[in-house]
Amino acid sequence: MSLGRLGDALGEWRPAGGAAHGDPLAAIRAAWPGIVGPDVVRSAQPSALAGNALVVVTASSAWSHQLAFLEPQIVRALRELPEARTLERLRFRVGAIRAPRRGTPPARQRRLRATGTAPAGGVVPQSAAAALASFRAAVERARAAHAAAGGAFCPSCGAFTDAERPCVPCADGARSARCAAAERLLYEAPWLSSEAVLALVPDLSATEYDFCRRRLLRSWWDELRLAERRSGARGAPPPDRGRLRRLASSYVLLETRIDPNLLEMDGAIRRNALGDLFDFIRSIEHGEEN
């Protein structure tokens, strides 16, 4: 596996006109080897356009991570194509890589012959260690240029950012982790107040808490409703009565925010919260068959 001199290719590439004009993806695929170099093409290829993003299929998550460092330079080069001027970002996905065409592009062959480094057949052998060293050098050049231009880096993964803050994937991952922690707390102790949850989950905001609470309520309600529909179906598996009782109780507590010690004392509260699911839950609690 070889990676090539991506930094050099980016510096030398100029958009080429021709047959791909009018079809953005075809134009991008035609220009891709000239942007990233024939070695990188073996492990990263354009796959599709999704809005203003180009989906790039890579041979592994390591390739996705490394190419993400050079995303600004690649996007900037692609935007020189008339068909790709609206492109804003890359999205990487691990998948199958199509076999590249054999041989070396003519322009590259001419450069290799001029320097006396082209072997017979036009194929340039390169060890994995040399390829990785070349790629790391290209990444470091790109990072140095980004820093020199006043750019910043994500404190979590080191990706390029415009300001000293987490990049979008890292920020989304941290937000998802906070929400998951909040939802676990609310499932185990749905009577906790919002202030208690905010105090127990570091960096959780009130807006995120409200989003997580609403999502959890909707998830519980959907599961209860599905169980009700299946309860009358012929051949349906028996319901998990313990889980359904737990979900119904947790739903009422989280929806009404009532003191759990008062819940069983007032059936009207549960009826109002559960609506037309109330009778189904009562039948589950009393072990009745529908």
Strand content: 5-15%
**What does the radius of gyration come to?**
28 Å
Specify the oligomeric state. single chain
In the predicted model, the low-confidence regions spanning at least 5 consecutive residues are: 1-20, 109-126
Q: How would you explain this protein's 3D organization?
A:
This protein is mainly alpha-helical. It folds into 2 domains: 6-99 and 127-161, no CATH class; 173-285, no CATH class. Helix content is 56%, strand content 8%. The chain is built from 14 helices and 5 strands. The chain has helices at residues 6-12, 24-36, 38-41, 61-68, 71-78, 106-115, 128-148, 168-188, 194-200, 206-231, 241-256, 260-263, 267-274, 278-285, and strands at 44-50, 53-58, 89-94, 152-153, 160-161. A hairpin with a 6-residue loop joins strand 4 (152-153) and strand 5. Helix 8 packs across helix 10 and helix 11 (241-256) crosses helix 13 (267-274).
